[in-house]
Amino acid sequence: MTTRPTNWAGNVTYRAGRVHFPRTVDQLQELVAASTSVRPLGTGHSFNRIADTTGALISVADVPQTCVIDPTRSTVTVSAGMRYGELAAHLHEAGYALRSLGSLPHISVAGAIATGTHGSGDTVGSLATAVAALQMVTADGELTYVSRETDGEEFCGTVVGLGALGIVTRVTLHVVPTYEMRQWVYDDLPRTALVEHVDAIFASAYSVSLFTDWRSEGVDHVWLKHRMHGSGTVEPPTDWLGATLADGPRHPIVGMPVENCTEQLGVPGPWHERLPHFRREFMPSSGQELQSEYFLPREHVLDALEAIERIRHRVGPLVQVSEIRTVARDDLWLSPSHGHHTVAIHFTWVPDTTAVTPVLGALEEQLAPFRPRPHWGKLFSTSPQTLACGYARYADFTALMARHDPTGKFRNQLLDRWFPPG
Ligand SMILES: Cc1cc2nc3c(=O)[nH]c(=O)nc-3n(C[C@H](O)[C@H](O)[C@H](O)COP(=O)(O)OP(=O)(O)OC[C@H]3O[C@@H](n4cnc5c(N)ncnc54)[C@H](O)[C@@H]3O)c2cc1C
């Protein structure tokens, strides 16, 4: 008996009996043209059924890998199935870098971009904001190319595409010169300090993450990732706003092995070994979990945290850790940071869907006044009406789907729910 493929977390068994791995773009084109129902799959790190299908589930991981840097344009063109960890190592070796990475380097470039995956930083956009162009196979099996330079609005609609417009085969990303970073963790930031200094805290490093488990007041850990400029880096104070500099490495989830995390304690290292929280060779996070995340306009951060406080008795027992980050505004239609700077409030839950689902409803009710946008690759129960109100270009995206894919080849149950066909 063959076992059906599952997502990374194991909470989704894909209804397709197997994953197709075309070895060339030609094979991919033939497969898409010959199928009536298709979904692209990345590395399966999403927590919902976004990649699911009863038809052909297709990964581009076996299409020969390319990684071509164009120094004149400051771009790199990579195969869509490449993982960020691999891409980052290539880039660093060649003297280049990306401005942002998610918490883990294990995910594919196309999969991360398709869901609006982000890292952290007041002035840093999501990973999708690095995209300059995409090559993809559309529903009729044709190969098309979309770039910001030539396709303007259509490009903005296509990048965070949820796999609904085609199967991306290559991605061109903007790069910057490589850089070094140092990472420090502070323990126990008092709640009052957060309330009084929230803007200064998020502006205090290139990338800032606040971690709490909602079982006590205050912030359990603050992770600060600083870019190094020249040789003179200021040493951090032992006490900062009432928090204490950590005396050893930390894992975001208390009790998990710190060896899985990127180096802390201010040890200098390349950007791709400091921006993610987790090392490429090890398991990220806890491995036994579900995740959700909501993006709100940045100015509502304190009110939103207070709203969650009201149901702390329901959240606390089910959460392994919660992470709060900021993401810069962008113009990509389905990006959760479209149109405004956001704060992203993330929850790593215990792996119990039955217990977590009602709490998601309660959370969404608490956050409703702030018009939260859910992470497309995580668990949420937001209604299609709320999604439609939350995204100014929702109707345009629905029209783009219909134009690219008139027979609904790339649709699945979840896309039908979020974007009901006309
Ligand atoms: C431990 C852990 C930590 C995480 N940390 C973060 C974080 O820091 N920040 C954050 O924002 N998210 C985070 N996530 C969520 C994760 O980044 C997203 O779910 C992301 O989409 C996963 O990429 P993937 O390659 O696994 O895509 P998949 O889950 O396989 O697919 C996601 C979507 O991309 C589409 N897709 C995949 N490949 C293609 C392609 N070639 N062409 C077109 N569409 C495609 C799929 O159809 C699907 O709709 C985390 C997840 C885990 C498990």
Describe this protein with a few key phrases.
422 residues; Alpha-Beta Plaits; ten-stranded antiparallel beta sheet; five-stranded antiparallel beta sheet; binds flavin-adenine dinucleotide; alpha+beta; Uridine Diphospho-n-acetylenolpyruvylglucosamine Reductase, domain 3; 24% helix; globular; 11 helices; 2 domains; 20 strands
Give the termini separation: 40 Å
Number of helices: 11
The outline comes out as: globular
Q: What bound compounds does this protein have?
A: flavin-adenine dinucleotide
Query: What is the level-2 CATH architecture name of the largest domain?
Result: 2-Layer Sandwich
Overall radius of gyration: 21 Å
CATH topology group of the largest domain = Alpha-Beta Plaits
Provide the structure class.
alpha+beta
Overview of this protein structure:
This protein has helices at residues 25-34, 84-93, 109-115, 148-158, 191-202, 301-309, 312-315, 353-367, 384-390, 394-404, 413-418; strands at 19-20, 38-41, 56-59, 67-70, 75-79, 96-97, 131-137, 143-147, 167-174, 176-177, 180-189, 207-212, 219-227, 239-240, 243-245, 269-270, 290-297, 319-327, 342-349, 373-374. It is α+β, with helices and mostly antiparallel strands and 422 residues long. It has two domains: 67-177, Uridine Diphospho-n-acetylenolpyruvylglucosamine Reductase, domain 3, CATH 3.30.465.10; 180-384, Alpha-Beta Plaits (2-Layer Sandwich), CATH 3.30.70. The strands form four sheets. Strands 11, 12, 13, 14, 15, 16, 17, 18, 19 and 20 form a ten-stranded antiparallel beta sheet that branches. It has a five-stranded antiparallel beta sheet with strand order 4-5-9-7-8. A hairpin with a 4-residue loop joins strand 4 and strand 5 (75-79). The longest helix has 15 residues, at 353-367. The radius of gyration is 21 Å and the shape is globular. Flavin-adenine dinucleotide (FAD) binds at residues 8, 39-46, 50-51, 60, 80, 102-104, 107-108, 110-112, 114-115, 117-118, 162-163, 167-168, 284-285, 375, 377.
